[in-house]
Amino acid sequence: MWANCFLPGLALCLEATAVMIDKEGLPDTGLDTSNWTTGELPPISDMIDINDMQFAAKNTLSGKNYAYYRTAALDEVTYQANLFIWEKIRLNGFSFVDVSDINLNTSILGYNFSAPFFIAPAAKAGKASAGAETNLAKAAGAAGILYVPSISSSENTSTIGAAAVDGQVMFHQEYIWSNKTKLQDELDEIEAAGFKAIFLTVDNTGVNGIRDRSMRFTSGSNSDHSATFTIEALNQLRNMTSLPIVPKGVKTAHDVKLCADLGFPAVYISNHGGRVVDMAPTAVEVLLDVHKQYPEVFDQIEIYADGGVRRATHVLTLLALGARAVGLGRPFMFANVYGEEGVTKAIDILTLELTTTMALMGQPDIAGYRGNTTFINTRQVELEYFGAPLDVDPSSSPTSIPSVSSGNATSRQ
């Protein structure tokens, strides 16, 4: 970055000044921004971890567009909790295991994908790139992961659907609009465009959350979301489409259990990135509460989760707590400032972190982490959230361990 300076009696001169990015408390992993120019896209080679993508977006986007993605509700307590709850968790890694064959393959609603993470619904990808949602669809298709576009996308539903590569499976997000004609039309469009399931956002009841950061650039608007969405209304909606419906935005163990009892194939634990109810619990805390109150639910229904996920260790933590797949929203919006190439790089970064961490933890198959709490120590979270650790066996052993003396298998699970 160059700043003008003027010295009396001398010609106008230029002085080099380093770009300073407010990293908002995110981990400092040594990113050097001294050669960046404010308002210009930094070299993609500078992007080493997913948080770097946020810093690049902050440097490049207008304040208004960055705030649109970054904003959260009220004091952003939940937004911050999403990002930093991981510091209270420890992972257990095990040695003496063959990890030469790493397997990330994951099924979601019966469809096969190449990884246990997916691109979660996030609105207006066009604020980051002219390629908008098409960039995300193409990158996800090439990588074999799931993409779930928002109904509030920059591009229309049919355009995003047409961007799919051969054989690509995408789901689609939908809101519960008070205008039932609009709702029916959108459900029909989603199905006609080839999407295979609906992530139905259930945590916007009549209004959006108050998001101060974005309201400094634009006033809040009427959300047009239904304020009378009851279980009866939900059952009526299920008859409006033949696609499977997954309630998204569930924030309590009670509602996870309710969705299982109502016969949904899956439920999506999410606090909407801290954008709706501030001080709502994180996905880690909700999953722990499900373990405490309704452990049977994990055998009844698929569970997806998101919120503050930036690292493979975060993905593995949520899988170990019982999630089948894990979503990331903002990170891919930020990566989209580089277009499809940036989204692809973000996918590659997370995939490399996953394969590396899995090998180092001694479990090469992603299925071996799912619901296997022996890989995680969440005692500090339990103490703070419940007032005491959960009443479970604290010993940890991920598999049956062969006896050294006899060669026979003995289990310490």
TrEMBL record:
Cofactor names: FMN
Full protein name: FMN hydroxy acid dehydrogenase domain-containing protein
Low complexity bias locations: 394-406
Keywords in alphabetical order: Oxidoreductase, Signal
Classification via PANTHER family: FMN HYDROXY ACID DEHYDROGENASE DOMAIN-CONTAINING PROTEIN, S -2-HYDROXY-ACID OXIDASE-RELATED
Positions of the FMN hydroxy acid dehydrogenase domain: 42-379
Gene Ontology MF, one: oxidoreductase activity
A Pfam short name: FMN_dh
Signal sequence bounds: 1-18
Organism: Salinomyces thailandicus
Keyword Transferase in record: no
Location of region: Disordered: 394-413
